[in-house]
Design goal:
alpha+beta; elongated; 14% strand; four-stranded antiparallel β-sheet
């Protein structure tokens, strides 16, 4: 029970009065036949007032943090108490608060090394509480910061500036980057038989000055303007799933007459990380985004790989991705081959193969049913292992029809794509082994993690702001949101409150 000082007692009285007001409000709503909507809104407003009163009472009851004129740290440093308590602002989900506490440093005008009340309560460095930061980003991680500010106002009845929300996002983005480097791996008993590595890129609009700092590395951005590529990587595991070429074609063309195998396995532990290119520095050139992503992929894959587990690299035909994967993974793959007979398999996404077949079909045929028949037949042959035969036939048809101009270019593009990637298209072997052949996991994630948030109308990003948002969204996509916020509080305690042990015996609170 809270007792002692008159100020604490006054705060207690206010909280009790608010509770009585809420009880009276409920009775009044019953008597007046108030709609449930009006009841909810009125109750929420009063609960927020009670929360604010409770927070004020809680902070006031902490006392002034007086540990004595001096304290001695574990390493023998003597810290001196400030002359007077300093004011400390704090924003919680219930509103803005302020408390006063002594602080300790090694002398006047020296860096503050101990804030006893901050340390006791494990407060973050900024003005906002950890929970307010978390909730604010739940609003902003999907919508524009301005929309997030409006939603916070509607729910928590607080006015928060866009600048404040952007600052919280950048702080959290820095923390998320560190967390992504050491995400807890899934439990071994939950992991699948195959380790899958995949990546893809998506262009993001930058402000002009930022875009000019980064050259265009990727071949996907033919007319980039101020757009620069962010590369998203994913590492996950999945059990093998044996299917036939006929079943794959039936699934692609929605043919329900062909029975599909039951119990399709679900991916496990989908961990994501997205990176932007690093601008040029005086002593080094700009670094493509894919290098940062694959550096993380290697680290994540090393952590999760089990002895004898096949490693599947599954991507579309973007040459820069495969080249970067080869460079970044070369050392690890060599180590695997030295210590075990580890199978590393490269697979081209089958849906991209399909898209190139459709491009050829549109050149060769006018009728929809003829195009579909062409694609269906060639897809089945490719899945059966006859990539070379399909390409040879397509080139023969190009010659026989004496295609020119744009049509000839389209056919050559399709044929060249299949020829260049033939070594990654041994689908007959992959299907018998139960390997995945579609990169839907990363394709969907690129749309959700990057495009849905970062390509909204009129948006232009700085590299720093874009990377921060991408870090936070990568944590969300990895389903590690709760763990991340527990981790950042623990990390904050170690970084900000190194002398927290000094407040263990603090008795200045009122309770």
């Amino acid at each position: 029970m809270i007792v002692a000082s008159s100020s604490v007692a006054g705060k207690t009285d206010r909280l009790l009065n608010l509770a009585q007001n809420l009880s009276a409000f409920v009775r009044q709503c019953v008597q007046q036949g108030t709609s449930f909507d009006d009841f909810e809104r009125g109750t929420l407003g009063q609960i927020l007032q009670m929360g604010s009163a409770a927070a004020e009472l809680f902070l006031l009851a902490q006392g002034n943090g007086d540990l004595g004129e001096t304290v001695t740290t574990e390493n023998g440093a003597i810290l001196e108490r400030s002359d007077t308590p300093l004011s400390r602002p704090l924003r919680s989900i219930f509103g803005e608060h302020r408390f006063h506490s002594f602080v300790y440093s090694q002398g006047p005008n020296q860096k503050i090394e101990l804030r006893p009340i901050d340390a006791r309560l494990n407060l973050p460095e900024g003005k906002a509480s950890y929970l307010f930061e978390e909730f604010s980003q739940l609003f902003c991680v999907e919508k524009a910061f301005g929309v997030g500010a409006e939603q916070l106002q509607a729910v928590f009845q607080q006015t928060v500036s866009v600048n404040a929300l952007e600052h919280i996002n950048r702080t959290m983005g820095t923390q998320a980057e560190l967390f992504l480097e050491q995400m807890p791996k899934p439990l071994a008993k939950t992991e699948g038989e195959l380790l899958i590595i995949t990546a893809d890129g998506k262009g993001v609009p930058l402000v002009r000055a930022e875009a000019q700092q980064v050259p265009v590395f990727e071949e996907k951005l033919e007319r980039p303007g101020n757009r620069r590529m962010a590369t998203l990587g994913c590492v996950y595991t999945v059990d093998s799933y044996v299917r036939t070429p006929e079943q794959i074609v039936a699934a692609l063309f929605r043919d329900e007459k062909v029975q599909q195998p039951d119990d399709r396995p679900e991916p496990v532990g989908k961990h994501y990380r997205g990176c932007f290119a690093e601008p040029a520095q005086p002593d080094q050139p700009a670094i493509p985004s894919a290098y940062g992503t694959f550096a993380w992929i290697v680290q994540e894959a090393r952590t999760r790989h089990r002895a004898g587990q096949p490693v599947i690299r599954l991507m579309d035909g973007q040459l820069s991705l495969w080249e970067t994967a080869d460079v970044c993974m070369e050392e690890w793959i060599a180590e695997l081959h030295e210590t075990e007979a580890c199978l590393v398999v490269d697979i081209l996404d089958i849906l991209h193969v399909s898209s190139y077949l459709w491009r050829a079909a549109k050149v060769l045929y006018g009728a929809k049913e003829h195009r579909e028949a062409f694609v269906q037949d060639r897809m089945l042959r490719i899945l059966q292992g006859d990539v070379r035969g399909v390409v040879t036939g397509m080139r023969r048809m190009t010659s026989q029809r004496d295609l020119k101009g744009k049509d000839l270019k389209e056919m050559n593009t399709a044929c060249n794509y299949l020829e260049k990637n033939a070594e990654r298209m041994r689908y007959d072997e992959y299907l018998r082994a139960g390997y995945p052949i579609a990169s839907g996991v990363i394709e969907g994630a690129c749309r959700h993690v990057i495009k849905d948030r970062m390509e909204q109308g009129g948006m232009r990003w700085t590299l720093r702001g874009a990377q921060a948002m991408l870090n936070v969204r990568s944590v969300c996509a990895s389903s590690e949101w709760k763990i991340f916020h527990q981790w950042r509080q623990a990390e904050g305690a170690k970084r900000l409150h190194q002398h927290r042990a000094l407040v263990a015996n603090y008795q200045g609170f009122t309770a």
